[in-house]
Amino acid sequence: MKKLALLSILFCALSFLGAADEEFHAGDQSVFMLPTAYTMPKGSCAVTVYEAVILQFAYAPIDRLHLSAGMVVLPFNYNLDMAETITAGAKYNYYRGKSMASAVWGSCTYRPKLLTLGNVLSFGSNGGKGVGSVHLMGMLVGDIESENLRGILGTGGILHLFKRVNGMMDFLYYVPINLVGEPGEFFGVKDHNYALLNAGIRLKGKRGSVDWGGLGSVGKVVKSKKLQLLPFVKVTLMF
Hints:
It is built from one helix and twelve strands; from the N terminus they run αββββββββββββ. By secondary structure, it is mainly beta. It has one domain (2-238): Porin, CATH 2.40.160.40.
């Protein structure tokens, strides 16, 4: 945990070396899974595929607003049940300063019946002469069927390595406190005191990006004491 904290501080220190600008590349709207406060230019669309099974479409009707819809899609086993996994969401960038931006977002999933509401602060710049950015997130996740409400905290960073290559890391911590409902009843997991870590690189262009990372779990729900990373791939096309 100390190493992760030091790494986050390093990302934060580097991000303040560059000021935010208007340059936007495909994928800048998120790290791996952690959303950023950045939004696409007005009239832009983006298609993102997570792990070849989750498909998301986003549209920016104005510069500061994203509207999105996503669902699970299994290419070789398509069935109507997949339509029940559809998630509708929106993100609004309500503050955009010289070196900081902030956005609020929310989403609703039909099955499992989940509601989310969160806020993210983004510091630094991923374009121009910026050397990177750091992102701090807090969100609430509600499970409608079990009437359970929990909090999730997250941090992530994007570090400019080369012109077309970024180093990235995000860390999502599932707070072991139920704001509403009985502890341990959330989303079918008895002990939710754990975190997800994702680290890797982004190969980016103006209209497309590919994220390659390793995704691992840390916490009581993981039997192994060693961090075991699974391959994580995300592809984004913007037009």
